[in-house]
């Protein structure tokens, strides 16, 4: 009798032990799932904080289409335009979606410039960096019959008289077109406090240059390439670290090869609202990386003249912090930081 009772006690203890192991295993699996896995459960809203056809819109639509067509993300990627304020309207919209794992937006250096010149209360620190994707570069161009044949010629003229040359850009003073030029000529030794910058915010910078109303146009590589192919402009310099490959663009000299130790990357990347689930951040950064390894992406990238510039969330955050400090110091120097 005692032996039978002992057997039942031992069996009961063994069953409790097995139950405990099962509970521990189930808890472990649940924790692992909570920490490491996330999948979108509904369509993802991709905000382009500008009108259709611009750089943000074009990049967002090209990438969203590839993420869908390559079945990397199995939910609809719906691109929505939120123009206004140099990006500020779109940023305010996303800022109101804190913790939303199904919203993101595309951005570039104006996410630094616009807040620093007082046009927005929001900057990169108010959002969750997901991934940097591409690099583009600035270009400084003059008319084909301009007396300036190199960036060195232009810098020397500006050293003698900072008001001798008028520069136009398609953004406001203190924004990217302006500051990319300021950064370049400052590296060449020019006193940048009194430069003559003209804002053509209606997108008429190229027309003003070709019409002889200004001397230099500070713009993007794509805009410069089209007119250079037509023989209407000379590209004095681009802000890439080295010469680029490709028809026409391989002819454009860099600042560095002309003795000006400067470069400027017009990066484009994606951000989410603040307080995103870390597992969602990991999902998106992996999705962008996978997309950039496809042959279809390489065709799209080369068609637009983009350069791969992948950074995951953590790398992107470090890059943004360092760049912000540099831009802030430059804008303080020229008296444009608000």
Automatic annotation (TrEMBL):
Keywords: Signal. CDD domains: PBP2_Bug_TTT (cd07012). Residues 1-24 form the signal peptide. Transmembrane segments: none annotated. Belongs to the UPF0065 (bug) family. PROSITE patterns: PROKAR_LIPOPROTEIN. The keyword GTP-binding does not apply. It holds the Pfam family TctC. This is Tricarboxylate transport protein TctC. It comes from Bacillus thermotolerans. The keyword Signal applies.
């Amino acid at each position: 009798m005692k032996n039978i009772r002992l057997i039942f006690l031992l069996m009961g203890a063994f069953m409790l032990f097995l139950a405990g192991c099962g509970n521990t295993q189930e808890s472990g699996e649940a924790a692992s799932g909570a920490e490491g896995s996330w999948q979108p459960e509904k369509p993802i809203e991709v905000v382009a904080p500008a009108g259709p056809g611009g750089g943000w819109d074009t990049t967002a639509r090209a990438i969203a289409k590839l993420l869908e067509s390559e079945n990397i993300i199995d939910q609809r990627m719906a691109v929505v335009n939120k123009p206004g304020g140099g990006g500020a309207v779109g940023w305010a919209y996303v800022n109101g979606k804190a913790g939303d794992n199904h919203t993101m937006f595309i951005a570039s250096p104006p996410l630094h410039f616009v807040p620093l010149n007082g046009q927005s209360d929001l900057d990169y620190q108010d959002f969750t960096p997901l991934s940097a994707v591409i690099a583009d570069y600035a270009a400084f161009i003059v008319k084909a019959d301009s007396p300036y044949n190199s960036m060195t010629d232009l810098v020397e003229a500006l050293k003698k008289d900072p008001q001798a040359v008028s520069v136009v850009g398609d953004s406001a003073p203190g924004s990217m077109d302006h500051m990319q030029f300021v950064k370049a000529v400052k590296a060449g030794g020019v006193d940048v406090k009194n430069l003559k910058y003209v804002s053509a915010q209606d997108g008429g910078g190229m027309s003003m240059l070709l019409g002889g109303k200004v001397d230099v146009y500070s713009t993007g590589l794509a805009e410069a390439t089209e007119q250079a192919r037509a023989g209407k402009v000379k590209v004095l310099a681009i802000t890439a670290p080295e010469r680029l490959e490709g028809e026409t663009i391989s002819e454009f000299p860099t600042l560095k090869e002309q003795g000006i130790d400067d470069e400027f990357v017009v990066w484009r990347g994606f951000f989410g609202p603040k307080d995103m689930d870390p597992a969602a951040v990991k999902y998106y950064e992996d999705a962008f990386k996978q997309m950039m390894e496809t042959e279809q992406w390489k065709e799209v990238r080369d068609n637009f003249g983009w350069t791969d510039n992948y950074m995951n969330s953590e790398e992107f955050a470090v890059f943004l912090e360092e760049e912000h400090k540099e831009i802030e110091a430059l804008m303080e120097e020229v008296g444009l930081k608000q």
